[in-house]
Amino acid sequence: MQQDSYNMPGIVEVRYLQPEDVTPNIISSYLAGIPAAVFVEGTCVSLNGEASCQAVEEHSNNGRVEKATLTFMTVDDVPRTGVVWMVRQASSGWWLIGARERPAPVVKITTSAGQPGGDRAVKTVEVTYQAYKAMIPLDN
């Protein structure tokens, strides 16, 4: 099985939105050459430190699949299920992770307690999504 991967440096904003706010069959439409757009701002998540995002594309006899992994730290409460994610890269605009249709992105949250000196508790959030095309560039 052949594997390709790419990293997205410079993540400056992370948002989440409801799946019904995304166009139906957005992945198929994008692959057919139709520009993808989302017309809802979603909910902005405050970032503590740098966010990272990477996608790994695996080729096998049965076709290909792409797995996107978004990792960031925040003090905000974020939903564990039922949302689609958008990230903004400083140099190239917005990307969509997830779609209206199932499967949904999987969210894993790890909470670490703050230091006794008054630091706030920080959550490390890891969002993974696996689909034929896991990250869609948006035209908005």
Description:
This protein has one helix at residues 26-31, and strands at 2-17, 43-45, 51-60, 63-74, 84-89, 93-97, 106-112, 122-131, 135-137. With 140 residues, the protein is mostly beta strands. Strands 1, 2, 3, 4, 5, 6, 7, 8 and 9 form a 9-stranded antiparallel β-sheet that branches. The model has no long low-confidence stretch (mean pLDDT 88).
Which features would summarize this protein structure in a list?
140 residues, 9-stranded antiparallel β-sheet, 9 strands, globular
Q: What structural class do helix, strand and pairing data support?
A: mainly beta
Cα distance spanning the termini: 35 Å
Shape call: globular
Main β sheet profile: 9 strands, antiparallel
Kindly estimate the percentage of residues that lie in beta strands according to DSSP: over 45%
SSE string, helix = H, strand = E?
A: EHEEEEEEEE
Which parts are unreliable, with pLDDT below 50 for 5 consecutive residues or more? Answer: none
Rounded to an integer in angstroms, the radius of gyration calculated over CA atoms is 16 Å
Helix percent band: under 10%
DSSP strand tally:
9
